[in-house]
Amino acid sequence: MMSNGDSPDRDERALREAIAALETPPVDFEVVAARISAEAEREGLVEVAWTLEDSPIGELLLAATDEGLVRVGWSGDDHDWILDELAAAIGPRVIEAPARLDPVRRQLEQYFAGERHGFDLALDWRLSHGFTRKVLTACAAIPFGETRSYAEMASAAGSPRAFRAAGSALGSNPIPVIVPCHRVLRSGGALGGYGGGLPAKRTLLELEGVLA
Question: β-strand 69-73 against 148-149: which pairing, if any?
Answer without folding.
Answer: unpaired
